[in-house]
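Task: complex structure prediction.
Instruction: return structure tokens for all chains below.
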Amino acid sequence: MGGALACRLARAGLSVAVVDRAALPPMEHPNFDGRAYAIAAGSRALLEEAGIWDKLPHAPGPIAQIRVSDGKPGRPASRLFLHFDATELGAGPGHGGALGWMVEARNMRMALNACLHAAPGLKLYAPAVAEVTRTASGARIWLDSGEDFPARLVVAAEGRDSPLRRQAGLTAARWAYAQAGIVCAISHTRPHDNTALEHFLPAGPFAQLPMAASEAGEHISAIVWTERRDAAPRLMALDDSAFTAEVQTRLGDHLGAIRLVGQRWMYPLSAMYVHRVTAERLAVVGDAAHGIHPIAGQGLNLGLRDSIALSHLLIAAKAAGEDPGGPALLARYARARRLDNLSMLVATDGLDRLFSTDNPVVRAARDIGIAAVHRMPGLKRAFMRQAMGIG
Ligand SMILES: Cc1cc2nc3c(=O)[nH]c(=O)nc-3n(C[C@H](O)[C@H](O)[C@H](O)COP(=O)(O)OP(=O)(O)OC[C@H]3O[C@@H](n4cnc5c(N)ncnc54)[C@H](O)[C@@H]3O)c2cc1C
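Output:
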């Protein structure tokens, strides 16, 4: 996140330094490791402006349609479902004919690293550890190499456990879900037709997301599967054929025979609300500023929207000769992000509670809701635009 923001700002002529405690090249895994991001249309704009999109080594896979259904593992999906189609949005601006794009995490890292090395006026310190001092008149960055330099604004983008956020005394409310996310990729014998599936199961949502074909021409999809936290380690410990059979049970057979590609990953799921995302000469972005349930694949997109808001403010401040770390600009950033951050947290938390249940009353009520949304094209389009970050 910090890297994408830095590239965007450097391309606009701002002087930027990036400090990452990890060295960058080891993050470029030589083979596909099974992880991918769903990038919404609104987020793509920042990646384009930062020069990252054009440097992706392989074309991302478009998501043209999303099918949402309700069911139980091993049983056919409920007849009640929602079907979102990019063509329903017409030729309007901002979506390029797709609801979003699937980008391999490895490709994103390679493109980001290339931009970080090429961006004019961007200084890169990685691996490096920084101590930061902030006062009303400015900040100073002290590196473990002994080097130090001044800054007008410090951006905290170190993920959920951000040391800069904690040092600034910015408090966060956290809660853990009784769920874990299992992430992997599969190849399948039938094409996915650029269609994603979100299948709501009692333990949590199971998503299949269409990816670009492999170099060998195989049809590939990413799987993001939410399971009960106590059941997930047992599933992760299964051998490949037993694990693949569990995936197939939940996915159904519409994609034909499936095979696991790359590794499988497991993440305990939690949410986090940060009460204030600014302090003296400090702005907090990305997972350092919020944590949400991956039910809608929006975590990275929400962080990219922080970066879009902050970059617009900083580029305008440069043009106006305004202090980029002054209280007025920071107040504008906090105001710009408050509603989106809070509403995404509430929406993803609510969706998980509503769908991750086997309670027959709740199931009946949500099926009626799904059917109603299906019959209201205006509401459906509003949902689509929101999920795409162009609402
Ligand atoms: C199961 C699962 C599936 C997901 N799927 C999606 C999806 O499909 N789409 C989507 O949009 N999002 C998805 N997400 C969310 C997404 O992965 C995160 O929101 C995103 O990675 C956050 O990016 P970030 O840059 O803010 O933080 P991180 O990715 O945590 O990056 C933090 C960076 O800071 C560096 N760092 C850490 N500490 C320090 C320090 N002290 N000093 C210097 N540098 C430091 C690290 O080396 C790293 O480079 C998913 C999450 C989960 C758990």
